[in-house]
Amino acid sequence: MSDPVSVIVPARNEAETIRKVVSVMLAMPDVGEVVVIDNASGDDTATEARAAGARVVSETRAGMGHAVRTGIAATKYDWVMKVDADLDKFDTGLFARMPAARGPGIGLVKGAWHDPGDNMPMTRLLVMPAIRLMFQGLGHLRAPNSGLYLFNKSLIAQDALVGDYAVDLDIMLRVYAAGAEVAEVDIGRIENDPRDVPHYNAMAEELLAFFLSRQQRDITTEMVAMAQDGTKVIRHALGTLAARAVAGGRVTIYLADDQGPYAQVLRDVLAPYPTAQVLPLAAASGFAPGANATGLCVFAPFPQGGETGAIEAATRLHAGAGDLAPAMLLMPTQEAGRERAGFRPDVVIENQDGLAIKREALIRLEGRVSDSPPPSEVFQSYASLPEAKRPAVG
User: Fold this and answer.
1) What's the rounded Cα separation, in Å, for the pair 122 and 233?
2) Are 210 and 350 in contact (CB under 8 A)?
3) 178-237 residue pLDDT tens
């Protein structure tokens, strides 16, 4: 038997259809539970769902993303299938194709369906063009924004998901950025209630805002940091690294002292983000980018004694990752306000999304932090480093 599936059903005033949806899903092979998220319904949605055998949880905040987050948090199993509460006519046998499509390397299976009364304006005019321009590896999907899909929740930071209609895309892009494959199966014909122009207008604004935010976050460019211990990473690069992890991008930190207290601080604050990990520096030679990586950014200490191993390992990785057009950025050698012994910053990276994580780490590092960390971090590009300061690469 394949891994069991938890089904989540966000529902708001769907008393007329929820009983059938729950009953049909519970009868599917592989389904171990159905969780209905009552999203502030004013009718008997919750009562009908329980009567059909679902477990019901409540989410009072408006927004599909809020309901989905609450539903995922309530599930028992790693594989989660999201379905709509207003489905009336659908083929259960075809829905079963989603669990059947799981295989090695696959992290999400989209259910592609067709509705003879809906020409899919959001998909044709906004989502598919954006996907093809920004995430070409997903350009094969016919229904990238389908709200019917199955995914492995262990691959993503569930609490960081957006709170609105873009949540379905957010989950897909996070799974993809984590290095897993996104597959698609045909689940047949589904007839939805007609939607008016104001509905599509509101949805378009949310989806466009989401795509613009993901373009800024560059989630398929992986980040790798190397240092002697966690202190330098926490003080000078954690905001940048954490912001990438929060958005769903892969982050790997290699430390020579990977068992010390500062390494543990890093592990603790990054624990909610499955795409971030802290490893021993000796393992850096085995680094391999994720299957869907489109770029690489390497962070290393500025060359100045004591961190030779980390600098040399970072230089080797940078030199050997040509296909990913790697960048290499050097972290300051000392604290801000003190002499930096030749360090010449020429790159500034905003890290607003990682500030809370950096502040938590600094508090654990120093006992307290009187001021909030700055919303940006500065680095020197390796390309600007004089040849005399560059380590030899063997």
Assistant:
1) 42
2) no
3) 999 999 999 876 655 556 656 667 788 889 999 998 888 999 999 999 999 999 999 999
Helix axes 238-247, 261-270, angle to 10 degrees: 30
What is the SS3 assignment for 224? strand
* Cα 315 to Cα 330: distance, rounded to the nearest angstrom: 11
List all residues 6 or more positions away from 306 whose beta carbon is below 8 Å from its beta carbon: 228
Percent of all residues in the chain with a pLDDT value above 70, rounded to a whole number: 90
Domain with CATH 3.90.550.10 in the chain: 5-214
pLDDT for residue 297 is more than 80: yes
Q: What is the C-alpha separation between 285 and 189, in angstroms, rounded?
A: 50
CB 145 within 8 A of CB 168: yes
How far lies 361's CA from each of 225, 226, 251, in Å? 16, 17, 16
Nearest to 64 by CA among 10, 17, 126: 10
User: Within 13 Å of residue 232, how many CA atoms lie on the same side as its CB?
Assistant: 27
Domain(s) labelled CATH 3.40.50.10320 in the chain stretch across 221-389
Residue 341 CA to residue 304 CA, distance in Å, equals 8
Q: Give per-residue pLDDT as tens, 51-72.
A: 999 999 999 998 899 999 999 9
- For domain 221-389, is the CATH number 1.50.10.10? no
CA distance 38 to 53: 14
Fold (CATH) for 5-214: Spore Coat Polysaccharide Biosynthesis Protein SpsA; Chain A (3.90.550)
Question: What is the distance between the alpha carbons of residues 139 and 132, in angstroms, rounded to a whole number?
Answer: 5
Sign of the Cα torsion 184, 190, 193, 196 reads: positive
| Contact assessment for residue 169 and residue 145, using Cβ atoms and an 8 Å cutoff | yes
